[in-house]
Design a protein that fits this description.
This protein has 266 residues and is an alpha+beta fold. The protein has 2 domains: 93 residues, Probable inorganic polyphosphate/atp-NAD kinase, domain 1 (Rossmann fold); 139 residues, Sandwich (Tumour Suppressor Smad4), CATH 2.60.200.30. Helix content is 18%, strand content 43%. The strands form 2 sheets. Strands 5, 6, 7, 8, 9, 10, 11, 12, 13, 14 and 15 form an 11-stranded antiparallel sheet that branches. It has a 4-stranded parallel sheet with strand order 2-1-3-4, sandwiched between helices. The longest helix has 16 residues. Bound molecules: NADP nicotinamide-adenine-dinucleotide phosphate. NADP nicotinamide-adenine-dinucleotide phosphate binds next to helix 2 and helix 4.
């Protein structure tokens, strides 16, 4: 039976070296290796840092097969394999000494006066003002009005993304076994003129956040999905919710979230 593994790497020289070495080792073990997403692939390996890991999953359109990362990047919170441990990783993979972690994504449905566009985020959806403008938006949850918010923006993060932009913006780190969304404000304005919430809000996985730009601001909203900017004209509203689309992360048997948080952040 053919066993195919897809490898995706960034262009950093350490990643390219690692890709070459990994390819040789996998071929020696009887695997076929593809550098484009192969429909019969059983595993995707991303080589790089967290940024490359996110890009691999987006470029491959949220594959249904497990994804694992080899860290040649800076922080490497997602990719847990070190390039020095490739042999150990292959051995572990063959022995099935791993577990699969299902990760729920957040979905943003951006509706303009003409169409709706669906996008999926592994870390977060950020709503910001274009050209550094303040955003003025109406925030509803499950059709209930919460606030007319003003500030730099707000982000909605997954538990997996809680250690990324969300954490830098003062949000909480969330255990990935919880299924929820975290809404974190970015520099909210609190004056006599405007009242905007100042701490993160946690929503259950069946909540629907609805953001409507106030009149005059419908062309000045930027939607940033896992660090990639998207611009739309005449945005009517944006709905953000926990998606049915999931990805599968392959984790080594000894992977433990809080030890990694302690090692990387605290
Ligand atoms: P990037 O340079 O690819 O990433 C910025 C930093 O965030 C890098 O150190 C990256 O790790 C780390 N990172 C990414 N996902 C993470 C996660 N789930 N947990 C912990 N750290 C994580 O930046 P980008 O291309 O603009 O956007 C990619 C992501 O970066 C976004 O989804 C956003 O979460 C984050 N970001 C953070 C800030 C901030 O903290 N102020 C601002 C913009 C974006 P590596 O070094 O391993 O790549």
């Amino acid at each position: 039976m053919r066993r195919i593994i897809t490898i995706n790497s960034n262009q950093v020289s350490k990643s390219i070296e690692t890709k070459k070495l990994l390819t040789e080792k996998l071929i020696n073990m009887g695997f076929e290796v593809s550098y484009d997403f192969h429909p019969d692939t059983e595993l995707v390996i991303s080589i790089g840092g967290d940024g490359s890991f996110l890009k691999t999953i987006h470029d491959f359109d949220f594959p249904e097969v497990p994804v694992v990362g080899i860290n040649t990047g800076h922080l490497g919170f997602f990719p847990e394999i070190s390039p020095d441990n490739i042999d150990k990783f292959i051995d572990t993979y063959l022995k099935k000494d791993y577990f699969i972690q299902d990760i729920s994504l957040v979905q943003a449905s951006v509706c303009t006066n003409k169409h709706c566009f669906d996008m999926f985020a592994i870390n977060e959806v950020v709503i910001k003002g274009d050209k550094s403008r303040t955003i003025h938006i109406n925030l509803k949850v499950n059709d209930k009005h919460i606030q007319n918010f003003c500030g730099d923006g707000m982000l909605v993060s997954t538990p997996t993304g809680s250690t990324a932009y969300n954490y830098a913006a003062g949000g909480s780190i969330v255990d990935p076994s919880l299924n929820l969304m975290q809404l974190t404000p970015l520099h909210p304005i609190n004056t006599n003129a405007y009242r905007s919430f100042t701490s993160s809000i946690i929503f259950s996985n069946d909540s629907i956040i609805k953001i409507t730009p106030e009149y005059r601001f419908e062309d000045s909203i930027l939607v940033v999905i896992d660090g990639v900017e998207h611009r739309y004209s005449q945005i009517s509203y944006i709905k953000i919710f926990v998606s049915d689309v999931k990805i599968k992360l392959l984790r080594m048997a000894d992977h433990e979230f809080w030890s990694r948080v302690s090692e990387k952040f605290l």
